[in-house]
Amino acid sequence: MKPLVLALAAGLALLAAPVARTQTAPGLPEDPGAAVVEEPVVQAKEPGPAWWVVKDGDSTVYILGMPNGGIPPKSTWDRRWLDRRLKGANSLILADSVAFKGGISSFGEAMRLYRSLRSDIPLETRLDDPLRSRFVAAREKLGQPAGRYAKWTPFVASLILMGDSAPQGWVDPRDDVIKAARKAKVRRVEAPARNVSDMVSKVFSNMDPALETTCLSAAVRTVERARPGTVAEGWARGDVAAAISGPRDYEGCVLLLNGGAQIWRAIVDDQTRLIAEALKTPGHSVALVDISSMVAEEGVIRKLEARGLEVTGPDGR
């Protein structure tokens, strides 16, 4: 059942993924991260990736907006401001990570879910054109055989396709940040794990053929027009608009998971709370937050400002 486990994990992870400026596909559930605040979508004044600065009295948190999906191998990014801000920092707040705990409560329940997601009829036989032709072209573009998706429902196939579309060999700049913090002997603070046991047991309770097909179509569209290189390059040079310019359609599908919109908001609340807690201690800290979670209309910037905190953007304003 490994593909099922991977598919569920991918779906849960996408709930916390950064937003992009592309609007959610019509007919999908509420996507609270689709709208962005225009003011912070700017070019960073400092060299390298975009930083935000939050102050409260004699305490400061420097927030580095992080990319989704990493950056190409051998890519370079300017780390001078990171090293300066880690020096003497109270903590490194890993607000960009989300851990999940809990799962399917019994073997019988797991088997029932597994069987509900399988079919003896090959997936491509079940699809109508033009989606069938587009799906075949998408998987072939990724070098994947029909058999990889054949026995799954369209929704699970869409999750697997999204996982397959992730660029191979890319590196996560987060690892560089953690290594630098360790060298600087900065304490790490991580976001709390979220219990998803109820969600996993109900995850597909709202599925219907039309929504499954819509999600598969969104995954195919993501493969067709993906611009990961442009997004990663934009992140490295502090171009916020480019860094959040990837397609957003598929994230709306993941919100089919029961309570998806509420979980997205809860994750943003956790990120905001960690930063606000750090501001209670004199001195400074460094925080990592997904860059698009920063600029979403319901994102971290708006949440911090709602607490009466002063937020300075990458352009120094």
Offer a quick outline of the entry.
The chain is an alpha/beta fold and 317 residues long.
Shape: elongated
Assembly status = single chain
For the biggest sheet, the summary is:
6 strands, mixed
> For the largest beta sheet, what order do the strands appear in spatially?
5-3-7-2-1-8
Count of discrete alpha- or pi-helical segments spanning 4 or more residues: 15
Structural class: alpha/beta
Mean pLDDT: 80
- Span from first to last CA? 51 Å
Q: Tally the structural domains.
A: 1
Can you count the beta strands? 8
What percent of residues are in strands? 5-15%
Q: Helix and strand succession?
A: HEEHEEHHHHHEEHHHHHHEHHE
pLDDT < 50 stretches = 1-7, 12-28
Q: Report the C-alpha radius of gyration, rounded.
A: 20 Å
| Helix proportion | 40-55%
Tell me what the structure shows.
This protein is an alpha/beta fold and 317 residues long. The protein has one domain (2-312). The chain is 44% helix and 12% strand. The chain has 15 helices and eight strands. It has helices spanning 2-15, 80-86, 107-116, 123-126, 131-141, 154-164, 173-183, 197-202, 209-225, 228-236, 240-243, 249-254, 260-278, 291-295, 300-306; strands at residues 51-56, 59-66, 91-94, 100-101, 187-190, 194-195, 283-290, 310-312. The strands form two sheets. It has a six-stranded mixed sheet, sandwiched between helices. Strand 1 (51-56) and strand 2 form a beta hairpin. The protein is elongated. The model is unreliable at 1-7 and 12-28 (pLDDT under 50).
Question: Layout of helices and strands, plus pairs?
Answer:
Blueprint: H1 2-15, E1 51-56, E2 59-66, H2 80-86, E3 91-94, E4 100-101, H3 107-116, H4 123-126, H5 131-141, H6 154-164, H7 173-183, E5 187-190, E6 194-195, H8 197-202, H9 209-225, H10 228-236, H11 240-243, H12 249-254, H13 260-278, E7 283-290, H14 291-295, H15 300-306, E8 310-312
Parallel strand pairs: 2-7, 3-5, 3-7, 4-6
Antiparallel strand pairs: 1-2, 1-8
Helix pairs in contact: 1-6, 5-9, 6-9, 13-15
